[in-house]
């Protein structure tokens, strides 16, 4: 039974993180937390930006849960793991694929990948804090699908 509980804990934590990241991005990072997130909507000078501090803020509870769940490797450990794996997927998508903080030549072809990439690029069209859209990361609504005839799918 334990294995089923652990798998559910992992998947639920992963899915919850997308909802949580959307909420944080929309209401906190574009709200009171804008002083850190702003650096991500402006050109980056150097290797890091203040916004990177959010990675540490999100990683801390995940590491803590993995730590307290680790003697038994129970569901608490797997919740921490789900959050951590979400963090890795987020980093791969957001920082590597979209913002190219590491050199690569990947050009994802799948409809899903193209949709979430386009949604995040639309999010970045706004340089300011207000009136943003597309606050999700690994999930985007079908309206962000890339259409071949669509003129604004270039960028
Ligand atoms: Zn933003
Ligand atoms: Zn971004």
Task: Provide the descriptors you would attach to this structure in a database record.
155 residues; binds zinc ion; 0% strand; mainly alpha
Walk me through what this model shows:
- The protein is mainly alpha-helical and 155 residues long.
- It has one domain (2-153).
- It contains five helices and no strands.
- Helix 1 crosses helix 4.
- The protein is globular and about 45 Å long.
- The chain binds zinc ion (2 copies).
- The site of one zinc ion has 6 residues, from helix 1.
- One zinc ion binds at residues 40, 94, 99, 120, 124.
Average pLDDT across residues?
A: 94
- The overall strand count is 0
What string gives the helices and strands in order?
HHHHH
Question: What are the low-pLDDT stretches, counting only 5+ consecutive residues below 50?
Answer: none
**Number of separate helices:** 5
**Structural class given helices, strands, pairing?**
mainly alpha
Which radius of gyration do the C-alpha atoms yield? Answer: 17 Å
Shape designation:
globular
Can you list the ligands bound to this structure?
zinc ion
Q: Could you say how many structural domains there are in total?
A: 1
Helical proportion, percent range:
55-70%
Largest sheet: none
Summarize the structure.
It is built from five helices and no strands. The chain is an all-alpha fold.
Task: Furnish the topology, listing elements before pairings.
Blueprint: H1 2-32, H2 34-37, H3 53-69, H4 75-98, H5 111-123
Helix pairs in contact: 1-4, 3-4
The structure holds zinc ion (2 copies).
One zinc ion binds next to loops.
């Amino acid at each position: 039974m334990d294995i089923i509980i652990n798998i559910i804990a992992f998947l639920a934590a992963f899915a919850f993180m997308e909802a949580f990241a959307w909420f944080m991005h929309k209401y906190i990072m574009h709200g009171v937390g804008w002083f850190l997130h702003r650096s991500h909507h402006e050109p980056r000078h150097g290797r890091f930006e203040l916004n990177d501090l959010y990675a540490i803020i999100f990683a801390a509870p995940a590491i803590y849960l993995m730590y307290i769940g680790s003697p038994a490797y129970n569901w608490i450990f797997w919740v921490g793991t789900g959050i951590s794996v979400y963090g890795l997927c987020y980093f791969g998508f957001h920082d590597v694929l979209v913002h190219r903080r590491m050199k690569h030549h990947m050009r994802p072809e799948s409809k899903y990948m193209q949709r979430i990439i386009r949604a995040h690029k639309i999010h970045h069209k706004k340089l300011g804090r207000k009136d943003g859209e597309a606050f999700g990361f690994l999930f985007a609504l079908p309206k962000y699908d890339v259409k071949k005839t669509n003129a604004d799918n270039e960028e």
